[in-house]
């Protein structure tokens, strides 16, 4: 086996992955093992890095925050997570999404693992003016949607006249 067999290539088409004997479960090739371990190391580093500065939890799930005239809508992608494993909390001006994505098989059966499993928590600060009594959350087809209605005071837009001097 050559070193080029370890590298995934992309040339204007799908990624070509070698399916030869080097990647079979029976193989104990040290280069393949090294390649997997280095990938696992870098994956764990990137999964633990959060651009908000918090290094203890990954910034997963990915979310969208949309502001409308009467409400904010937060949508989170949670593929492979069941509704009973999700918790949505609203307290002290912040929204917390937490839960757990469970693995279907034992680690000793896994030959290659690139998917994220385990507990997650995503917390975001909310603007003032949320009507906390009317917040709703729904989960369908792997998408969690949280509707955060604005209070009546927050919906009022006041026009300030300009003074000409």
Per-chain topology:
Elements: H1 30-48, E1 63-67, E2 71-77, E3 86-91, E4 94-101, E5 118-125, E6 136-140, E7 143-149, H2 152-155
Antiparallel strand pairs: 1-2, 2-7, 3-4, 4-5, 6-7
DSSP strand tally: 7
The CATH topology of the largest domain, please? Immunoglobulin-like
Q: Major sheet, described briefly? A: 4 strands, antiparallel
Q: Assign the structural class, choosing from mainly alpha, mainly beta, alpha/beta, alpha+beta, or little secondary structure.
A: alpha+beta
What average pLDDT do the residues reach? 76
Strand content: 25-35%
The CATH architecture of the largest domain is Sandwich
Low-confidence stretches: 10-26, 50-58
Count of runs of 4 or more consecutive helical residues:
2
Strand order of the largest sheet: 1-2-7-6
Helix coverage percent of residues?
Answer: 10-25%
**For the terminal residues, how far apart are their CA atoms?**
81 Å
According to CATH, what is the class of the largest domain?
Answer: Mainly Beta
The ordered H/E elements are HEEEEEEEH
Spatial extent as radius of gyration: 23 Å
Q: Shape from CA axes? A: elongated
Quaternary structure classification: single chain
Number of domains: 2
Describe this structure in words.
This protein is an alpha+beta fold and 165 residues long. It contains 2 helices and 7 strands, in the order H-E-E-E-E-E-E-E-H. The chain has helices at residues 30-48, 152-155, and strands spanning 63-67, 71-77, 86-91, 94-101, 118-125, 136-140, 143-149. It folds into 2 domains: 1-48, no CATH class; 57-156, Immunoglobulin-like (Sandwich). The strands form 2 sheets. Strands 1-2-7-6 form a 4-stranded antiparallel beta sheet, with no helix packed on it. The protein is elongated, with a radius of gyration of 23 Å.
């Amino acid at each position: 086996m050559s070193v080029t067999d370890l590298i995934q290539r992309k040339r204007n088409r799908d990624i070509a992955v070698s399916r030869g004997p080097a990647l079979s479960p029976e193989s104990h090739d040290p280069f393949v093992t090294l390649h997997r371990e280095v990938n696992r190391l870098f994956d764990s580093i990137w999964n633990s890095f959060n651009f908000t500065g918090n290094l203890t939890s990954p910034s997963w799930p990915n979310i969208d925050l949309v502001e409308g005239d009467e409400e904010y809508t937060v949508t989170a992608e949670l593929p492979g997570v069941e509704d009973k494993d999700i918790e949505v909390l609203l307290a002290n001006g912040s929204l917390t999404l937490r839960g757990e994505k469970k693995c279907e098989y034992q680690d000793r059966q896994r030959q290659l693992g690139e998917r994220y499993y385990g507990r997650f928590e995503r917390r975001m600060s909310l603007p003032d003016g949320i009507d906390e009594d009317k917040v709703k959350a729904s989960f369908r087809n792997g998408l969690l949607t949280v509707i955060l209605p604005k209070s009546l005071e927050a919906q009022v837009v006041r026009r300030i006249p300009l003074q000409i001097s």
